[in-house]
Amino acid sequence: xxxxxxxxxxxxxxxxxxRILGFDTIFESDISNKRFYDHLAQERVLLTRTxxxxxxxxxxxxxxxxxxxxxxxxxxxxxxxxxxRKDIRVFSMCLQCNSPIIGINKIAIYGLVPDYIWQTHDxxxxxxxxxxxxxxxxxxxxxxxxxxxxxx
Length: 152
Ligand SMILES: [Zn+2]
Prior knowledge:
By secondary structure, the chain is of the alpha/beta class. It has helices at residues 12-20, 33-39, 51-56, 70-80, 115-120, 138-150, and strands spanning 4-7, 24-27, 45-48, 62-64, 101-104, 124-127, 133-135.
């Protein structure tokens, strides 16, 4: 099942984590208010913590987030949308601009990342939109542990 999300301005951390899990997630603070609400006319699931917005968009698909903690927020989205382990594609979306990232040949990015990173890593990915380059590091290991716990 493919889901797209739109997270309101109070849910930046949740938006980032949904991108880590591979879901197309727009974040209100990245775009203008009007465009954000235009997006809701599409098939996006609105994520909000604001009762006023919940009531205004009562007919739309929506998850009203209750927890402050991002782990609990993710659990709620996963439960309400019935997202399974097989639905996620970890580290397939750019955390910065919400576009797909693809694996890239190490040779092609020589000089574009710090030398010690280039020398000590073999797998790199690149965002086709903003050209940000990603590689595995300790943050990936920590994220992986967090994700395993989410789907335990
Ligand atoms: Zn990007």
